[in-house]
Amino acid sequence: MNQPEQTEPIGMIYGLKRVLRYGLPYWKIILVTILCMAVYSVSLNGRAYLIKPFLEEVIIPATEMSRASGLGSLDLSKIKGEVSEDQSAEERAKLTAVLEQKLVFLIGIALAVVGMIPLMSFFKGYGSSYVVARMVRDLQCDLCDKLLRMPLAYHTKARKGEIFARLNSDVARSAESFRLLFGELIQESLTLLVGVGAMVYLSWQLTLLIALVMPPLVLIVVKFGKKVRKRSLKRQEKVGDQMGSMLQMFSGIKVVKAFRMEDTESDRFRSVNEELFRREMKVVKTDEMSKSFTELFNNFTYILFMAVGIYAIMKAMLGLTLPVLVAFLGLATTLYRPVKNLSRAYNKVSDSMAGIQRVTEILDLESETEEQEGMEVLRGIREEIRLEKVGFSYDGDQKVLEDISLEIDKGQTVALVGKTGVGKTTLSDLIPRFYDPTEGRILVDGSDIRDFSRDSLLRHIAVVTQDPFLFDTSVEENIRYGRLDATDEEIIEAARAAFIHDRILALPEGYKTRVGDRGTRLSGGERQRITIARAILRNPSILILDEATSSLDAESEQWVKKAIDNLMEGRTTVAIAHRLSTIRNADKIVVLEKGRISMMGQHEELLQMEGLYRELCALQFEQDDTGPISNSGPA
Ligand SMILES: Nc1ncnc2c1ncn2[C@@H]1O[C@H](COP(=O)(O)OP(=O)(O)OP(=O)(O)O)[C@@H](O)[C@H]1O
Ligand SMILES: [Mg+2]
């Protein structure tokens, strides 16, 4: 599959559904969090609403009372119906006491409401962050699993930077969506709902004004949101380029230094970064414009409410009173933030949709043919491996291998020989099913290898690749990669058999020495022998040996040769051999030319015939007796 270039936005709902599924296991925490959010919303709006009872029950009566007492003609009936006109100072004191009581009661409620706000804020914040963090980790693990299980063909095509970008930057962007959905979006919607409810209760006529202002606001938000999403997708593509550029640069640092390309690489990185910056700013611009418009609308609405409200009070319309208007405007101020945040949330979700899209693309990739129930289990070779008219093409167009028929008997060594690029590595990759043949089939004891479970097939195969790869851990762990349950003694034994034990002991920390990225702290010969020890430890019945061409010094060469002899002993081996010694002893030598088998036989037989084999041998004898044979030949 060739996803990296695809930029068509997927459905927003589909993408969200795909990733929000990761929230399902945490539904209980989500539920409690939403509950906290609801209490928070009620408290927040309650705080604004409280001004009304304060005004109506305490402040206004108190003001009127003091004004009346100052004039000496108190109209107490205005304050309390049950109080008559000729009330004495004694009863005024009683009334004051009632007001005081009410004040204390209201302050108590206010304190409780205000106390709820930080408490609920903590729990909802913690809860939603917990869920988001869990979802992000789960998603990342799934992505990693998915990528690990993708066929080799995917990885040889996909760019590493692109993969890293999707695992990091895009997951982070998706997390932004989670955070919004399980945070702001729910919270602010609740606050808005409660607030608007309170507003309707106070004055439905004023609230109706919202209905007039809303449509243009929503229109603006949606329009900007779409734009943000498109631009964000373009930016995320550049993030892949940026990561790729970094990876390339530093994994090839030696080449960079050798050719004095520091400045060139630096310039290249700068220009990738510059482009990323430009695309980022385009997203920011759209986002900021959208924010400003929302801001304008919010303020406009506030003034509209105020103007209409004051006018209505002046004209004694709509049944509006001062306490109602003040509380209403207070609510409007409280709701200012949710409205702003909700519209921004839409933009942010649009922005992170690009990340979600790119993450979903990976989740939706088709992985290696899954193991099916009842697949055969390979228990080792009894007779032979047989290739029947095998053909292969990497791109479905140009054939690398054609019509390869070959038998490899149990315990035999078959050597593949041919000029560079003829398809030797490709052919050997078909046996462990790194790739499947595009034509023909490969059989082990008469059964197609595609019928065996991958697990059981690979349990019997060890591959020593052309480019010896070590992980940046200890020597011991690198060897243990061959078989995880191996004991320390078995590891040492394998190292001895690979003639690397003494060298390992001479390292600063022996078997615990870290080998550096890709094993760079070791020499080429050491690296090779460690990979051989790894294969010996696996103790496979089938061995695929792609000898490296890197010329080693005579001594190193000797040890590698001995290590290989030990490794090959008693195994069915496909050797891509560059050393005449390996080839000479092979039970069968297969000469590949133009993707086909041109000659097959033993060393002596082939030497008798005219053809490529004789040429290659002659070429090697010219060099020396044991040097590389094939790949150094002219391409
Ligand atoms: N992943 C790939 N995608 C596309 N083409 C590839 C891929 N790997 C190899 N090829 C092509 O397939 C052909 C065979 O490559 P292969 O690596 O099998 O050659 P080889 O015989 O092992 O060469 P060498 O002796 O140099 O190792 C080459 O032309 C190469 O360019
Ligand atoms: Mg090769």
Describe the overall structure.
- By secondary structure, the chain is α/β, with parallel strands linked by helices.
- It folds into three domains: 3-363, ABC transporter transmembrane region fold (Up-down Bundle), CATH 1.20.1560.10; 408-460 and 541-635, P-loop containing nucleotide triphosphate hydrolases (Rossmann fold, 3-Layer(aba) Sandwich); 470-539, Rossmann fold (3-Layer(aba) Sandwich), CATH 3.40.50.
- It is 63% helix and 10% strand.
- It contains 20 helices and ten strands.
- Strands 6-7-8-3-9-10 form a six-stranded mixed β-sheet, sandwiched between helices.
- The two termini are 31 Å apart.
- Residues 1-7 and 630-635 have low confidence and may be disordered.
- The protein binds adenosine-5'-triphosphate and magnesium ion.
List the helices and strands and how they pair.
Elements (H helix, E strand, L loop, with lengths): L11 H9 L6 H23 L1 H21 L17 H60 L3 H6 L2 H43 L1 H48 L1 H6 L3 H53 L7 H42 L20 E10 L5 E11 L3 E6 L5 H7 L8 E6 L2 E2 L5 H6 L1 E4 L10 H6 L7 H10 L3 H6 L17 H15 L3 E5 L7 H15 L3 E5 L3 H5 L3 E6 L2 E6 L1 H6 L3 H12 L12
Parallel strand pairs: 3-8, 3-9, 6-7, 7-8
Antiparallel strand pairs: 1-2, 1-4, 4-5, 9-10
The structure holds adenosine-5'-triphosphate and magnesium ion.
